[in-house]
Amino acid sequence: MERIVFDKVVDRSNTHSVKWDAVGKVFGKDDVLPMWVADMDFHPPKAVTDALKDRIDHGIFGYTFVPMSVTEAIQDWMKKRHDCEFKKSSILFSEGVVPSISTAIRAYTEKGDKVLVHSPVYTPFFNMVKNNNRTLVTSNLVVEKGRFEMDFADFEAKLQDDVKMFILCNPHNPGGRVWTREELEKIGNLCVKHGVLIVSDEIHSDLVFKPNVHIPIASIKEEFREITTTFVAPSKTFNLAGLQASAALIPNKELKAKFKEVQEQQGFFTLNAFAIAGMEAAYREGEEWLEELLVYLDENMKITTDFIAEHLPALKPMKAHATYLLWIDCRELGLSDEEIKNQLLEKGKLGLEPGTKYGEGGEGFVRMNLACPRETLYEGLERLKKAFC
Ligand SMILES: Cc1ncc(COP(=O)(O)O)c(C=O)c1O
User: Fold this and answer.
1) CATH topology of domain 60-285
2) Looking at residue 5, what is its pLDDT?
3) Mean pLDDT of the region 251-261
C-alpha cells in the first residue's frame, strides 16, 4: 500500500475549483486564503484516481447505466461502516444530495405544504424548500454547554402544525454534531406520531471521530425505516464532490416509486461514467485511506482548538464530533457580523463562511473548513489571529 500523504500541498488554482478559483467573486478580493466551501484540499484514495484513469484510458464515453456492482458497494459499505442493511431494491442514485433533497420535496409534498428543518443548518435545506414553493418551518437548535441541542417541545409543536416532512442533517452541518440514539429515537417517534416523513441527509456520516458513532435514523426501528429517505454520498468522505454522485436509500416501496417518478420527470436516469467508476472504487477500496484521513482531520481539529484557546480565547469553537468543519462562536468579540466579515477579509485575508448563511442562530458565528494540509492550516490560523488581535 502506498503511503498516504495528507501533508502534501496541492495547487488547486485553475481547476475551476469553487473553493479556490471563485474566491474573487465570492469575497470581492483575490488575496484571501479559502477555508470556506466544504471540500478538501487532499487527493482522493489512489484506487479512485486509478479507476478514473482506467476509464479515461479506455477512451469512449458513451451512454452509461449504473451497474449492480455499485449498488452492492453501497449496500456493503452501509452494513460494514454503519451496521445498517438496505436491500438492493431500495437504492437509487442521484447526481447529488442537494438535488435529491429537492426531488424528495417534490415527490412527497405539494406546493404550499410545510417542511420543517432545524436552524442553523446547511443553507440549501432552506433554499430547496423555498425554491419548490413549499412553506419553510424552522425549529431552532439551542447551544447548551457549548454544543447544539434540539428543542423537542418546539419541534413537536411545529410538527403538529400540519408539517408534512422533516429534513434532518445527521451529522449536523455546521455544528459537527452526531445526534445520539436517544435524540434520533425522540425525533423518529415524534415524526411517526404526527405522520411526518423524514428525509435524512447523512452525507457527513463517514467523517465521524471516535468514540462518536453515526447511527442512521432508518436503522433504529422498522417504523422509522418506513418513513425515512436517507441520502449518502462519497463526495464528502472521499473528496469527490466534482464527480457528482450520491445515493438515495428508500426502503418504503411507495416512497421510492414517488421519488423515482420525479427523477424521471426531470430526465434523470443515470450517473456519468466517472461518477460510476469513482463511486465504486471509493466504497470498495477507500476504507484504509478514510481511516488515515480521520486521524489527520482529528489532529487538525485539535491543533485549531488549541491554537484558538491560546491566542484567541474570546472565540469559542464548538467541539466537532464529525465533519471537517469547525463552528466558531465569535460573539464574545462584541462585533457585528459585518465587522467579523470585514476583519477576516481585510485584516486576516481569510475566507470563512459567515454564520448568518446557516439561518437564525448563526449570528456571531463563523464556519471554518479544516480539511487541508498542516501548512495551509497553520497559515489559516495565523490569519485568524491577525483578523481579531
Ligand atoms: C449536509 C450537506 N448536504 C449536502 C451537501 C452537498 O451535497 P451534494 O454536493 O451531493 O449536492 C453538503 C455539502 O457541504 C452538506 O454539508
Assistant:
1) Aspartate Aminotransferase; domain 2 (3.40.640)
2) 83
3) 98
